[in-house]
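Reading is simple: each integer encodes one residue's backbone shape. An example follows:

___
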Amino acid sequence: KTMMSKRQLVSKGFSYVSLADENTFALASTDLYGWLKNLSTPVVIDEAQRLPNLPLAIKEIVDNSTENSLQYVLTGSALINRNGLDGQDPLARRAQHFTMSPLTQCEITQNSRNIVDSLIESNPNLKYEKEISREEVYKIMAAGGFPEYQQSYDSYEAWEREKLVSNDILAVLGDTILPGERLDRSMAVSILNKLLCMPGGILNTSSIGQDLALDRRTIERYVSVFLRRFLINYLPNIKTAPNRQTFTRAKIHPVDTSLSIQTMISKGHNPLEDPVMYGNLLESFVVNQIM
């Protein structure tokens, strides 16, 4: 997101600031409204999730502005706060929201076709007989869709890939991304590992809590943390009553299969040889291509 915003927007006249810079963060935290007013717009504000009150402050500025063009682009490594007005999104009807997911195979291979459109509009070719081996599919799933993992997959040793994913997960669970969100990183890693090792599994917070000697409500809180930090996705259970369709009994999928595979390997599993794990990974892989 940082590279894209710099290449696509800064080159077209946008200014750029990052709240990952501690001096910038301190200045904005001290006088948010004044800091915003002094920015040269249009502007990209990176790591915007670090300031929970930022959307509300931007609302006040935008509402008092006569500008009709795009003024602020907020990017974040976690979900940007949308609860500034008694639980309501302060930028409702004032902003568009986009999620940058890991690359799909269509994007990696630069195929302009959209897989969702193809599934709906195209007729299946019943004579198609090209085979792809189990090992080839596994390698694609292990490389995943994060550019760093995918492009450099063959240049890393197995232990390096495992270490790279582990370090990235720890960084995402650190306190710099969402400074005000308190969590026990050791506990978070234990819960996340459980989820990543059963991709596509139906969430059972009571069972996970029992395995880890934790309260069900603690598990639910950390699942929310993982969702906000873009580590997992969930598919609601359509049999659950609409008013309860949060992630109760939902299917939990890793945001990228590379996270699950390296976590499984770190726990001594061999997902290539285990048919259940392989099948679960394949399900999550398909979900990632569509979502």
